[in-house]
């Protein structure tokens, strides 16, 4: 008799509790990760901060290029990511786009980690 055959198996499947269903489904995790991907860039964090600090509650894209020292196409790209993540709202007025925070977006973002 081989002495290794008398050892207990490395994984005792009968003694493990079933994994069950994950608390966070794959689609929901993917959707929520878009928010964190959007926030993972310092320029996008700055854009959110600038829009939030604006007394009127909104900022024109034309006013966002200077503070970041970035070109308009780059700023527009970052703003699109923030809109796609559900953090900013975009409203087109003539040739310019104005951005405002989506109501409750920052609170929902903070709540994502708390709900895990």
Q: What can you see in these coordinates?
A:
It is a single chain. With 116 residues, the chain is α+β, with helices and mostly antiparallel strands. The chain has one domain: Winged helix-like DNA-binding domain superfamily/Winged helix DNA-binding domain (Arc Repressor Mutant, subunit A), CATH 1.10.10.10. The protein has five helices and three strands. Strands 1-3-2 form a three-stranded antiparallel sheet. β2 and β3 form a beta hairpin. α1 runs antiparallel to α4 and α2 packs across α4. It is elongated and about 65 Å long. The termini are far apart. 14% of the residues are buried. The model has no long low-confidence stretch (mean pLDDT 85).
Give Rg in angstroms. Answer: 23 Å
In the sheet with the most strands, the strands line up as 1-3-2
Structural class, by secondary structure, is alpha+beta
Mean pLDDT: 85
Kindly report how far apart the N and C termini lie.
Answer: 50 Å
Beta-strand percentage range: 5-15%
Q: Helical content, roughly? A: 40-55%
From the spread of the alpha carbons, the general shape counts as elongated
| Overall number of domains | 1
So, the CATH homologous superfamily? Winged helix-like DNA-binding domain superfamily/Winged helix DNA-binding domain
The unreliable regions are none
Characterize the biggest β-sheet: 3 strands, antiparallel
In DSSP terms, counting alpha (H) and pi (I) runs of 4 or more, how many helices? 5
Query: What is the name of the CATH architecture?
Result: Orthogonal Bundle
- The quaternary state of the protein chains shown equals single chain
Strand count? 3
CATH fold-type name: Arc Repressor Mutant, subunit A
What is the CATH class? Answer: Mainly Alpha
Order of helices and strands: HHEHHEEH
């Amino acid at each position: 008799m081989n002495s290794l055959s008398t050892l207990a198996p490395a994984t005792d499947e009968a003694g493990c509790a079933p994994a069950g269903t994950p608390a966070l489904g794959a689609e929901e995790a993917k959707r929520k990760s878009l928010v964190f991907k959007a926030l993972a860039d310092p320029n996008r964090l700055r854009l959110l901060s600038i829009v939030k600090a604006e007394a009127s509650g909104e900022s024109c894209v034309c006013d966002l290029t200077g503070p970041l020292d970035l070109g308009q196409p780059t700023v527009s790209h970052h703003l699109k990511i923030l809109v796609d993540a559900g953090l900013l709202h975009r409203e087109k007025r003539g040739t310019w786009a104005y951005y405002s925070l989506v109501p409750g977006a920052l609170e929902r973002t903070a709540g994502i980690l708390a709900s895990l």
